[in-house]
């Protein structure tokens, strides 16, 4: 999905960010204190009365990517994402959007930031119960200051965009949970923000509707290339949606990488355990499974793009009866054969000369 290059300026740049809850003076001392940074969350709470919800976190959100913040309950996901627009005030660190220092913004700039640049889509959208679907979406435009005539036209467009055509005159109470989420999404899109921040928007939905909404987000992202930051505690959701995933534990990012990097090369035992049950062949690609081409192999066999998943490659190799080539812009990067593909399925470490999984 992501077409950006690393060289492009990030949308959000976050460096050494901390959020410590607790008595103000004690909380302010935690980030700089060598003692406190070495303590576990429980030890820190016992010694200082403070909770370090976000601890020394550094990352960039790149233009056009879906950046997922994942972790178990209490790992600091919501706090971190709320810090991005200062819905929660960070305790220490630096933070910018498009190069502008967010921590230096006054109240007016902050309001503009939250309205126009980085709009949040919450799990509970707070739709206005007495207004119709169309009016709820138009309300998003009203607070943007869009005139009445334009509002209704634009709202109708957005309602159609999220697949609610024909339901414009219903009230939120007459909609399913998934449909309500779509209204909330349309309302957030109304602001045409540079970044959409999603806080576990689908966690209350049943699995089928949830899947449908994930596809909706993926489709919107694909169509518009809008930058998205998406919080979830659901690994499958993170893997499905994320271009990159920041995996949090106890306020820290324990690994930041593509789904393939996280599943294929877990940074530590915690991550390894986290991804243990993931069907590797659905996440890892032929980049991980390939080996260098032997003489003559670069010229024959089916050609696969580097982003082809192992499960897709298994089908191609089974059909052709021989190795497949991994080809990028006409160049053969390597080949995948049945042994390499099976090694991925079996979760075996990479053999020398084979792929990137370590
Ligand atoms: N206002 C607050 N005062 C004190 N502690 C807080 C406050 N808000 C959050 N915390 C604590 O900070 C830690 C991180 O909370 P946060 O809500 O960011 O986690 P989360 O990963 O989003 O969890 P969940 O998935 O359950 O929403 C938790 O230990 C939580 O109890």
TrEMBL record:
Gene Ontology MF term list: ATP binding; ATP hydrolysis activity
InterPro entries, alphabetized: AAA+_ATPase (IPR003593), ABC_osmolyte_uptake_ATP-bind (IPR051921), ABC_transporter-like_ATP-bd (IPR003439), ABC_transporter-like_CS (IPR017871), Gly-betaine_transp_ATP-bd (IPR005892), P-loop_NTPase (IPR027417)
Pfam families: ABC_tran (PF00005)
GO annotation, cellular component aspect: membrane
EC number(s) recorded for this UniProt protein: 3.6.3.32
Keywords attached to this entry: ATP-binding, CBS domain, Hydrolase, Nucleotide-binding, Transport
GO BP: any one term: response to osmotic stress
Top-level EC class: hydrolase
Domain of life: Bacteria
Family: Belongs to the ABC transporter superfamily.
Descriptive protein name: Glycine betaine transport ATP-binding protein OpuAA
Species in which this protein is naturally found: Streptomyces lavendulae subsp. lavendulae
Taxonomic classification: Bacteria, Bacillati, Actinomycetota, Actinomycetes, Kitasatosporales
Originating gene: opuAA1
